[in-house]
Specification:
Elements (H helix, E strand, L loop, with lengths): L11 E10 L2 E9 L10 H5 L5 E6 L3 H5 L1 H11 L10 E6 L12 H11 L3 E4 L8 H18 L3 H5 L18 E3 L1
Parallel strand pairs: 2-6, 3-4, 4-5
Antiparallel strand pairs: 1-2
Amino acid sequence: MEKKINLTIGVDFALKVINWDADTLIRLQLWDIAGQERFGNMTRVYYKEAVGCFIVFDVTRVSTFEAVAKWKNDLDAKVQLPDGSKIPCVLLANKCDQSKEGLVNNSSQMDEYCRDKGFIGWYETSAKENINIDEASRFLVSSILENDKAAGHNEREQDPDRLALDSTESSEGRGKGSCC
């Protein structure tokens, strides 16, 4: 029987909503940029204004893990935060509900790989079974919020339409939230 593989062509979009706390709803705008070589020349457009990233590989196909470093290098070369630092990036080992191949079978080696490549962390996930998706999202959002807090309030003062991401500020007439 031939295995069917669904490919993203170009780019796909999704919205993930997180109930951060009793007062805060966070909307993540997710761009799936395919990961196929033929779309590599378009990545700068897709990365524009990103404040966080997931790089996803398929634990059942070692070849997808082999491409992880290339995508992380591409990201780091083309986008950074306003202070010049790298955007936080989490590595997702997807399809953890299936048989795993390669490095993902060794947690300590995966931790070391992530440190070496500049990932802030990694999660075994299953999009199909909704395993660790919320945990990975909350982890990334926490890092985004820490970066925003460390950046201070200068950008908010320059851009009156920017929403406060912390619980200490709110703009008159607006609720708290973020679109990432």
